[in-house]
Amino acid sequence: xxxxxxxxxxxxxxxxxxxxxxxxxxxxxxxxxxxxxxxxxxxxxxxxxxxxxxxxxxxxxxxxxxxxxxxxxxxxxxxxxxxxxxxxxxxxxxxxxxxxxxxxxxxxx
Length: 109
Known about the structure:
- The mean pLDDT is 87.
- Strands 4-3-2-1-5 form a five-stranded antiparallel sheet.
- The chain is of the alpha+beta class.
- The chain has helices at 17-53, 104-108, and strands at 60-63, 68-74, 78-84, 87-92, 96-100.
- A hairpin with a 2-residue loop joins strand 3 (78-84) and strand 4.
- The termini are far apart.
- The protein has two domains: 16-54, no CATH class; 56-108, SH3 type barrels (Roll), CATH 2.30.30.60.
């Protein structure tokens, strides 16, 4: 009385459809993540690397701490930056955040 009989479903139905839908959804999600986060980050890293390779003595830069200075000596890993007359600091080359146009430090001070 309280239990109704369960009837088996017929053999008609697309059993492979959920698998294809799931795979398409996963591929779409990966593509979305790639184009939103991975690709732009790789592009920024490539631009930063090329900027670091193009640094030379006399360039004006901003390091990660927000310090502005002019490059006085540059090596493979470290470089010296003049932040004030007769005041130099020794920093890692990778800590350079931005390269400034010539004359920027004079216009700021």
